[in-house]
Design goal:
Radius of gyration: 36 Å
Strand order of the largest sheet: 8-9-10-7-11
Distance between the termini: 53 Å
Helix content: 55-70%
Keywords: DNA-binding
Family: Belongs to the AfsR/DnrI/RedD regulatory family.
Protein name: BTAD domain-containing putative transcriptional regulator
Strand content: 5-15%
Number of strands: 14
């Protein structure tokens, strides 16, 4: 939804369809709420701002009535003490105007105005001061635009007549008049303004206006033909707002600024734009020297003279010195700016030329572009790298790479837009082309003859794909290959050797890895490649890390293949990462866990490349070692999809795998599949026995949790207890902690809640002593859930918060979202709906930041439960529908989908008063939960069915179900307000003496589930 206030109030849907928002008072309300987008406006403030000193008799009800009418067309949320219009700041034109104005994009900012601000709601008390503030901002923006652009006499005269006391406006008009040779008119404007200021305000003109008056008297503002010596700008300039500001600031402080970066980064275009916006350009004191076509150092000065449109014939022996004298003479006539474009192939000569020129001409500034620094005294460097690219975010519109691609795409295919059909392809193109402007422009040019999907599918063959550059561009700028080759040809033999070998590292590497895999004593060669923009360097935890942009790496890989060295250095690369993961994997379960995770995060793409390569080449032992060395990291970080895929592909190597590895990976595959479903008991038992007989249980501590839980989830309790005992007797302290953790599950299933609590406490203490945050966070989450069942919501919240802190420290996406989700639900169960909403918002922001669609799907369910407990039934229904649509395309919940959907539908049906529908939904949940044999979950759905029976007036059945739920779990969930209400209505259930199996059978019978 978009709201426009810079003119008559209007609202549009996301697809641009106008929304009819009704009468004047409703328009006032939407305008007032839109001035605080995404924030709740207190009820008292809204009443004051809509009615002022004469509110209606029942102002609160009158406001509620307006909100109700507005909600029919716009999303308005009820917050504690007020109302919030559900709209993003960027979707309100007032705030978009302010952002664009601050960024200096004045034409775009002023283009948002459609008339007077708040034109149709001026009768509202809040409107007049707000409109006045906005009009002042508009005037200032218009003045800024005139100051930096062309001085339009007609437009300035019209504005001056409307605002005769604005001195800045008067000064601009005087300058414009003088530029047209109308000095007397300019002096008349000054006399008129001075008289008005004296008569109406009793003040003299400002110093700025007096200075303009004096300059007009002296004739210094007369007409001047400005010569534009810069390259013609045929395309719009997109995506470098921050760099423009930074470089302009540098040019104000330093006499030499060099833009350094790889080919295709847009250095020339950026330098041209900076020069065009520089104050000296308007005075005709900017020159642009293109050096790309200069082949010899001695021709450099002549090329610069050519930019000055000067030439002469002289003795060749004297030509260089005379050329410098002529250049210095031209530049020394006043303040000057010289752009030296593409210095890299003449770097030594360019450095000498620049040094000499700066010494000769004190009032000269030079802006140079190069793929490496000139490396002379006084040089200020400004790296020009890729444009910002999205990394999982859903909103792509603010990223420079996306903006540039869309701009160029529209030039060749008008109407091309970012929508559901294109967003994934645009994201992939921007990311895989590293946000490099030239590559993006070449890709966009392909839209003349290809679809966006065809372009995406051919990015692996990018050098063949991206060949549609401008025919008028330099040859090296017409294709992506030519851009990279230009840089490659400037390298020495030793630099070439290291550069091609670096292609084996998809994620870059530290110096130690590069020296081990590629070249001993590589530091100085490496820093030279950094200087020449072949390699980037970043600092990670105080250590330098070197990487290539993907396009350069693809080219380097071609060169490595052609050199005949590829097999040797790929093997070195893979073995390096086998050793690295073998060294760090055990530390993921120790106090050095965070240190280990830092290493894995930095090296993840390298490890994955080594693993995928080993699998593809059927290097079985190497693939098994690499998977074993990184699998637990993936589980800790919640990267289950990658873990499942890698285990599947390694297992496909079959009998070639060592027996212990095969058994371990098969157990892990089964446990991952068992989480959202039920595993075949015979297969699970066979795999567990294989892990024992092959000796895997002694080698891999992770099996201490995996095997007991695999047996437990396959409902083989005897085998589960055996594996708990085995793990508890392990020499590995982490395995013993894992045994306690798994044991707590079984004790809960047995109804021994006290024993389960003691086992969890032991597990937590042991995980904490070892330093394993993952185990600590999991245990805290379990403890919180069971403390909540006692009715102590606050204690559960405290535990969830501790778990969240640990998960956040661990940087585990899965655990962090789940802890915050459970925290939100627990706040809702306690009745603190504001806190619950805050936790949901925080979780949503986290999910947006990490770009994890699976976590987003799970969060939809949590949001639905939170808003339902807050009594917002319609919102819960909409969230439920969204959740159902999304889970059909997600595998994250597996067979839990049916169960979760049924529980949510039952709760919504209860809130609607549709008790028979609620019974049908609860029956589905009873059936799926009982078939899984999950006693705690079965107890929860039994309590839900008891609530339905009570609402149906079947009190005896409700009491019996409550007693059955208590038997199954060992206690009722007294943290649930609905359960507490049932206990208050029906009384505490009497203990039952039947078995759990009999209780389960009775619950299914009460739900009407056939046992056939």
């Amino acid at each position: 939804m978009r709201v426009a206030l810079l003119g008559p109030t209007s609202v549009e849907a996301e697809d641009g369809t106008p929304v009819d928002i009704g009468g004047a008072r409703v328009r006032m309300l939407v305008a007032r709420l839109a001035l605080d987008p995404g924030r709740a406006v207190p009820t008292t403030t809204l009443i004051d701002d809509l009615w002022g000193e004469q509110p209606p008799a029942d102002a609160v009800n009158a406001l509620q009535s307006l909100v109700s009418r507005l909600r029919k067309v716009c999303p308005v949320a009820l917050e504690p003490g007020g109302y919030r219009l559900v709209v993003a700041t960027e979707d309100v034109d007032v705030f978009r105007f302010e952002r664009l104005r601050a960024a200096g994009r004045l034409d775009e900012a002023l283009g948002l105005w459609r008339g007077e601000a708040l034109a149709d709601v001026r009768d509202a008390p809040f409107a007049a001061p707000t409109a006045a503030r906005l009009e002042e901002a508009r005037l200032s923006a218009e003045e800024d635009r005139f100051r930096t652009g062309e001085l339009d006499v007609a437009a300035l005269t019209a504005m001056h007549e409307k605002h005769p006391l604005r001195e800045r406006l008067a000064a601009l008009l005087m300058r414009a008049l003088c530029a047209q040779g109308r000095q007397s008119d300019a002096l008349h404007v000054y006399a008129e303004v001075r008289g008005r200021l004296a008569d109406e305000l009793g003040v003299d003109p400002s110093q700025e206006l007096q200075d303009v008056h004096l300059a007009a008297l002296r004739g210094e503002l007369g007409p001047r033909a400005v010569v534009d010596r810069l390259p013609v700008r045929l395309t719009s300039f997109v995506g470098r707002d921050d760099e423009l500001a930074e470089i302009s600031g540098l040019l104000g402080q330093a006499r030499l600024v060099t833009l350094v970066g790889p080919g295709g980064a847009g250095k020339t275009r950026l330098a041209t734009e900076i020069a065009a916006r520089h104050p000296l350009h308007g005075k005709g004191r900017v020159w642009f020297a293109a050096l790309a076509g200069v082949r010899a150092a001695e021709d450099l000065a002549g090329a610069v003279l050519g930019a000055f449109e000067l030439s002469f014939v002289a003795d060749p022996m004297r030509r260089a010195s005379e050329s410098m004298s002529r250049i210095a003479e031209v530049l020394g006539a006043g303040e000057s700016l010289l752009v030296l474009d593409n210095c890299e192939h003449l770097i030594g000569a360019a450095a000498e030329f620049t040094t000499d020129l700066l010494r000769r001409v004190p009032n000269l500034r030079i802006l140079a572009t190069s793929r490496e620094p000139l490396a002379i005294d006084g040089e200020s460097l400004c790296p020009v790298g890729p444009l910002a690219v999205p990394d999982g975010q859903t909103d792509l519109s603010g990223f420079g790479a996306v903006r540039l691609f869309l701009d160029r795409a529209n030039a060749v295919r008008p109407g091309f837009a970012l929508d559901e059909s294109t967003v994934d392809d645009v994201r992939q193109i921007c990311r895989r082309l590293d946000g490099m402007p030239l590559a993006l422009e070449l890709a966009a040019a392909r839209l003349r003859s290809m679809t966006i999907r065809q372009i995406t599918q051919r990015l692996d063959d990018r050098f063949r794909l991206l060949t549609s550059g401008s025919r008028t561009a330099l040859p090296r700028q017409r294709t992506l290959r030519a851009v990279v080759e230009w840089s490659w040809d400037l390298l020495t033999e030793e630099e070439l050797r290291l550069a091609r070998r670096l292609a084996v590292f998809p994620a870059g590497a530290g110096l130690d890895a590069i020296e081990e895999v590629c070249l001993p004593d590589a530091l100085y060669v490496l820093t030279s490649l950094v200087d020449k923009s072949i390699v980037d360097v970043i600092e990670l935890d105080g250590e330098a890390r070197y990487r290539m942009l993907e396009t350069i790496r693809v080219y380097a890989a071609e060169q490595l293949d052609a050199s005949g060295e590829k097999r040797e250095f790929v093997n070195r690369f893979r073995h390096h990462y086998r050793e690295l993961t073998a060294r760090w994997e055990p530390l993921i379960r120790t106090a050095r866990q965070l240190e280990a995770i830092d290493v894995y995060e930095a090296e993840q793409d390298n490890v994955v490349a080594a693993l995928r390569g080993a699998i593809d080449d059927r290097e079985v032992e190497l693939a098994a070692d690499l998977l074993g060395g990184t699998f637990w990291y993936w589980l800790v970080k919640g990267d289950n999809e990658r873990a499942e895929m890698s285990v599947r592909d390694v297992l496909a190597l079959g009998d070639l795998l060592p027996a212990d590895r095969f058994a371990t990976f098969r157990a892990m595959q089964l446990i991952m599949a068992a989480v959202p479903g039920v595993t075949d008991a015979e297969e699970a038992a066979a795999v567990i026995e294989s892990c024992v007989s092959s000796g895997a249980v002694q080698k891999y501590p992770s099996l201490a949790i995996a095997l007991p839980m695999l047996a437990f989830l396959s409902q083989n309790t005897e085998l589960a207890r055996r594996e708990v005992k085995r793990a508890a007797a392990s020499e590995d302290p982490w395995a013993r902690a894992g045994a306690e953790w798994a044991h707590s599950f079984m004790l809960v299933d047995d109804g021994d809640l006290e024993g389960a609590e003691q086992a969890r406490d032991r597990a937590y203490d042991q995980f904490t002593a070892i330093g394993d945050r993952w185990g600590s966070a999991m245990t805290l989450g379990m403890k919180a859930a069971f403390v909540s069942h006692t009715g102590d919501n606050q204690a559960a919240i405290d535990l969830y918060q501790r778990g969240l802190e640990v998960a956040t420290e661990l940087r585990s996406q899965d655990d962090a979202v789940q802890q915050r989700w459970r925290l939100a639900v627990e706040y809702a169960r306690m009745g603190d709906h504001a806190a619950a909403a805050r936790e949901v918002v925080a979780a949503e922001q986290f999910v947006r930041d990490v770009g994890n669609d699976q976590l987003s799907t799970m969060l939809d369910y949590a949001k639905a439960e939170v808003v339902l407990r807050a009594g917002r039934i319609e919102e819960a229904r909409a969230l439920s529908d969204s959740f159902k649509q999304r889970v059909t395309t997600s595998s994250v919940l597996g067979t839990f989908v049916t169960e979760w959907v049924a529980i949510l539908d039952a709760r919504i049906a209860i809130a609607d008063g549709r008790f028979d529908d609620a019974e049908a939904f609860a029956t589905v949940a009873v059936e799926t939960t009982s078939e899984r044999g999950d006693m705690p979950d079965l107890s929860a759905v039994t309590e839900l069915l008891a609530q339905v029976r009570h609402l149906q007036g079947r009190t005896d059945a409700a009491r019996r179900l409550m007693a059955l739920a208590q038997l199954i779990r060992g206690r009722l969930d007294m943290g649930d307000p609905d359960v507490r209400h049932l206990v208050a209505e029906l009384g505490e259930p009497a203990p039952l003496t039947i078995t759990k199996a009999e209780a389960l059978h009775e619950v299914r019978e009460e739900a009407g589930i056939s046992e056939s």
